[in-house]
Amino acid sequence: MPSPTLLTVTGTVLLRERIAMPAGAVATVKLVDVEGEVLAASAVEVLGVPTEFTLAVDPSFIADPAGLLIWAMLRTEVGVWGTTDLVPVDGGSTAVMLTKIDG
User: Fold this and answer.
1) What is the spatial distance between Cα 24 and Cα 21, in angstroms, rounded to a whole number?
2) Burial classification of residue 27, based on how many CB atoms lie within 10 Å of its CB (0-12 exposed, 13-18 middle, 19 or more buried)
3) Best CA proximity match to 32, nearest among 9, 4, 15
4) Whole-angstrom distance, CA of residue 82 vs CA of residue 70
5) pLDDT string in tens for the chain (103-residue length)
6) CA–CA separation, 31 vs 41, rounded Å?
7) Is the pTM of this model over 0.90?
């Protein structure tokens, strides 16, 4: 039976580059475990960076709470940015720095 209290993970998506965010930019953020299992995901419209995100998951689905990781990707008409490595979830708010991944 699912737990009535959800575990909430919050964070911020950041870019190294300073760019004007074009209309229609969308960040996809996923919470995964050390086995790569997706536990929660969200698509967030990005009007500018930093952009905040919130993911919620039933804690009964988490085998190792210390092994939670974030994967993220930002798609725009001028390029794609993403995580080059999975980012460990910080107890407070997790900062996720994205790197340009296409030419």
Assistant:
1) 9
2) buried
3) 9
4) 11
5) 455 699 999 999 999 888 888 888 999 999 999 999 999 999 999 988 899 999 999 999 898 888 999 999 999 888 899 999 999 998 879 999 999 986 5
6) 6
7) no
